[in-house]
Amino acid sequence: MLEKAFFIPFYPLLAFLVIVFFTRWKEKLSSGISIAMVLLGFLHSLAVLIAMLGRDGRPLELAYTFIDHPSIKLELGMWIDGLTAVMLMVVTIVSSCVQIYSLGYMKDDPRWSRYYSYLSLFTFSMLGLVIANNFFMIFIFWELVGLTSYLLIGFWFEKKSASDAGKKAFITTRIGDLGFIVGLMILVAYAGTLNYQEVFAKVTSGAIPANIIALAGVFVFCGAVGKSAQFPLHVWLPDAMEGPTPVSALIHAATMVAAGVYLVARAMTLFAGSASAAMVIAVIGMITSFIAATIALTQNDIKRVLAYSTCSQLGYMIMALGLYGVDLAHDPHTHSVGYYAGTFHLMTHAFFKALLFLGAGSVIHAVHTNDINDMGGLSKKMKITTTTFFIASLSIAGIFPLSGFWSKDEIIAATVHHPFFMTVTLLIAFMTAFYMFRLCFMTFTGEPRDKHRFEHAHESPKSMTGPLIALAFLSVFAGWVGLPWLKHGFSWFVYHGEHQVHHPNYILMVVSTVVALSGIGLAYLVYYKKAISADAIAERFKPLYKLSFNKWYFDEIYDAVIIKPVLGFTRVLWWFDANIIDGAVNGSGWLTVKWSDLKMWFDKYIIDGAVNGLGYICQAGSWALKFIQSGSVQFYALFMLGSAVGFVIYRVTPDGFYYYLAGVVILALARLLSRISRTNRLKTEPDIEG
Amino acid sequence: MFEYALSSLIFIPVIGFIVVMFLPKDNFGLIRWTSALFSFVPFVISVWLTYDYFILHSSSAAMVYVEGPFTWIPALNAQYFLGVDGISVPMLFLTGLLGFLSILASFNIVKRVKEYFAFFLLLIAGMMGVFCALDFFLFYVFWEVMLVPMYFLIGIWGGPRKEYAAIKFFLYTLFGSIFMLVAILVLYFTSEPHTLNMLTLIQTAPAFSRSLQIMCFAFFFIAFAIKVPVWPFHTWLPDAHVEAPTAVSVILAGVLLKMGTYGMLRISWPMFPEALRYFAVPIALLGLIAIIYGALVSMAQKDLKKLVAYSSVSHMGYCMLALGAYSSVTALAGCMFQMVSHGLITGALFLLVGVLYDRAHTREIAAFGGLGVKIPVYTGLMVLFSMASLGLPGMSGFVSEFMVFIGAFSHPGFMVITALAVLGVVLTAGYMLRMVQRVFLGEFNLAKWGGLTEINFREIVTVAPLAILTIAIGVYPAPLSNLMRATLENLINLMAR
Q: Which of residues 289-328 of B touch A (CB under 8 A)?
């Protein structure tokens, strides 16, 4: 089964193809095929996990050539190690739960088959991403999950907000991918390969200059920033909540957004090749985590609170991984737990965050609104949803002994050498506990604020509560595979670098529990007991409240600084194209036409004028000369005599000749004039002659 | 492969042209199916040729299926000389495929049907000739022959501004051809003994003086750049595309533009290596400008067809960038992939835009919205090709762009240019998704578009092969890559002289 692990992505792909080409019109069959295939994938993943446990996590690689060139060989292949096995489990479990849950949630949707085909396509892409053995392949599936995310966010595309959100998600993550591509180009240019292990070997052997490693690391990380919705590209994730809620659970909470974290973990050797690149990662993670947590404090849309929470938790993981990279860069034998913490939290978070979203979906399904101001008191009507939602909230808040407690503890433990990070981490833990329980209390406890909606609320069908219970189970127990007292626990299975022995840090456990409990306590006082007025706090810290409520104005700033100017610039360029460049083309055409007009004028009046002028001169000259040929013998004799006299004079005295010639010409002209006048008189008075 | 295979590619459409001329002009069915037959046979031959070349000849760079050289015009030493290698075979295949599909897509033409199909067949013959010719005189003749039917196809069957577009296209291209003619004459008179044989000139031309090489290179470049079109010679393209009937746009974008890049790769690049080194950076910069500029201008378009037209400017920019990075096999292979891929994808996009235009009689993006509800299959195809155009993995556009990027990046001194060119990836996503959103998503206007009908079977038949090939190349590019690898490596050796 292990060698055939590359089959796993193909099960859902098969489902996708079958649905699109054959069973599109048979809705129940489509969903059945889709769910059967993902369950098959789950079973296969389970077999792989068991096999990997049997091999002590020893990795396995298979590769097929995609394109072979002298400068670069691109492959498709699989790399199975502990981390891959865990991720395969996470993806197939969450995908199975979500697909089953959707049977209830998407009931009566006219595009049912399409929905399941998209889910299958997504599962295929995500599994392909996880199983990849090289950067090229992960990039391919990276983009494909982006596509399915786009399609599913905009699933109800008649709504403008949904189609806007899909577009925004695709383009924003693509901005990150732009950096990813540049990172890949740097790797190809300097490492000559994109295979993980070959790249890592070159990085650790020092074959690549340190600054190039840093550059490649930061650029590759850009991809993770986009996909995992990290600052400054986090803006798409909250909007992505326009998609159906099960989709949010699967793609925008548990799996796809975790792909960035997975990439950072997977390529840890690359990032750890440069302390500065690793520091960039840690700082970005921390900033995101902090900003998102502050925003989550004040949002009223149940899904958006969860979306910001997701951002924040992903930031947590990335920060932990980044800090591990920093430690590793400084000391190859580091005892930092950051790597373990990040990947561990990646797994536990997938379960409880998927549960939170599905729970929120169950609530939305019941009350048909996302606004927690219109909810309240739902615990009376929705027992299972309420219980599971509280379990997940306790887990994310980090309460002993739920899964979130163990993984969050490790994240805090990862910051022990970085006091500033530790402070912020604890602050975020406090905020997380607070906003999660604000959500819980406002949704499920107290008096219903919208009686009408409350009346119509009901517990969801079994197809929806079943996955909730399964995920609740995982939210409690999944973390136990990483108990700090286990010798061969999670950390040992997904190890990076040397096997590490962990010592439980009891002080940290106590501190983190206190922090979480105080966050829950504050929420309890404000939203359950109403001992403190939330409005009063908001009024007291008005600027901070507005900053949080308006999501730090990121959308507004991007719109004003980037989107509007770019769109304006496109219109300017178009004008430039139509008027300047094309103007030059048309202008040269116009000039040619005008030039030929000028040539025509010149031709007509100057050249042709010269020709005609010559003709005219000849005509005029011959007209004048014809009077000499008068037919009068006396005149001829006179002409001869005159010529002879002139000749003689010329021979004797050349000067005198000119006077003579002048005299003759005058006489001739006088004679000519008299002839002309006589001719005219004859013409005008024909009767006299006749 | 049979003897005179290349000649049959060229002359079967010519025979078709003559036959169609003699058909009764009112029997539309007969004319259509006769033309389809005379374009289908070359298509089959081109497929066979591609397969045969792949199996037997792709391991070497030599010219194969050579015909001639036969003396043609002794006084000029012009010869009838045909032959193909790894860069012309894919182009012949593309011409065969798109030629046949365009004829099928033209079945709805009802105006002067006989002339239309006759011109179309002549056009196919000219394009085939360009990709086979190994003699400059022959090459030039085919290059010009193709202009004439194109001029009439745009000028008679085009849109409202067809005359303007046709004249602009014709004059612009002719303007470039003159430079090419001068360069050819210079080569002829400089070579000793005088020859027009391309293969001979590729061997001898690098010995010519540097200034002569630079001049010839520049002259050829103008001719080819107008065809590609390279920024800033591109403004004929939006006009010609928008005014031309659908099938002509397909040929224009799918094959004609590639003649420019093909000419560069076949002629000026290996012939004048020294000039190439001199001009490489400016060429790559022009490519970069085209990528970014074309994408941005696309984003501002209000007309669907014009958007696709400007996207061609952007996409051909990748080819120019790759051609600038002449030292990398990967980049040049990326260029060839892009030529094929752009032919498939943009050809399909034009076909699809035509399908919508036939029904809606408008192409204004703002006039639509929410069509996904009414015509889901059409929407699916359009989204598929939009995704292909923006370089989604799993489709050919991704392979070509990725190869161009990694290839060009490793060419010395091209890092920054290439990194900037990656911006095109985001911009393309921007205008394509904006288009998809504004046409297919959002609220559906039932009153206005309630009568819109789904894409019909014939139209699906014209687009489906393109979709299949786009995905096939995207999923398994190795055969295409192997087909031209030896040729490209040889070309790179020639350029390195």
A: 293, 296-297, 299-301, 328
